[in-house]
Amino acid sequence: MKLSGSATGLDDTREEIHESGYRRFVGGAGDYWELIGQLQFRFLVDHGLAPSETFVDVGCGALRGGVKLIRYLAPDRYLGIDKHIELIIYGVANELGIDQYREKRPRFVVSEGFEFHRFDAKPAFGIAQSLFTHLAADDVAAPASLAERTHRSRLRRNAAWVVTGIAWAAEVTNVPWPGRLTTRPSRSSSR
Predict the structure, then answer these.
(1) What would you report as the CA-atom Rg of the chain, rounded to the nearest whole angstrom?
(2) 116-146 tens-digit pLDDT
(3) What letter does residue 4 receive in the DSSP assignment?
(4) Is 68 within 8 Å of 94 (Cβ atoms)?
(5) Hey, which of 12, 92, 166, 167 has its CA 20 to 30 A from 132?
(6) What's residue 157's pLDDT?
(7) pLDDT at 79 over 50
């Protein structure tokens, strides 16, 4: 799976994370960081995420939305997956804090291959916030295909997924998906 640097203009390397800063690397330094994290949290809670639900954050990064979700969810209910262990470390150390980490016990998988099977729980909710923004266009179908297989084996029946991305993600057709894939092109794609 190739990652595109087009979303942030940064190289997808651990060196870039350290040099640019984890918040800038993820996208959203300053007030934007808090705004996007709050939007993720409110959207999920407003659409039924309860503290007792198990939740998976695909591309959790430095926990921009994860911090709010971890604090909201009961212990052991947050699952995060990301390809960069550096981002997860920065997120836990600088955003969540070790005391909240110990109390809430979020679980993380470091993988660039969407290895949901490495979690021992079946999530009822999941989000892939801006994941497609960082994938090369040819790789957009891979998470959807994997989601179909994962849905059958590792997600709770009737699990809810929230996926966001950029305009070209809306042009993907014939993507296998567990249920209905609805796309709405952004305004920029109609120009």
Answers:
(1) 16
(2) 788 888 888 888 876 666 565 555 555 555 5
(3) P
(4) no
(5) 92
(6) 58
(7) yes
178 belongs to a structural domain: no
Q: What is the DSSP letter of 107?
A: E
Angstrom distance (rounded) from CA 56 to CA 74: 13
Distance separating alpha carbons of residues 114 and 103, to the nearest angstrom: 26
| Cα 167–chain centre separation | 18
Residue 181 lies in a domain: no
Task: Look at the chain and report how many structural domains it folds into.
Answer: 1
Residues 26-66: tens digit of each pLDDT: 877 788 889 989 998 998 999 889 999 999 998 899 999 99
**Alpha helix (H) residue ranges in the chain:** 14-20, 22-26, 31-46, 66-72, 85-90, 98-104, 131-134, 141-153
Domain range enclosing 45: 14-166
Domain assignment of residue 187, yes or no:
no
- 102 lies in a domain? yes
Which residues is 82 bridged to in the sheet?
Answer: 110
Whole-angstrom Cα distance, residue 130 to residue 96?
21
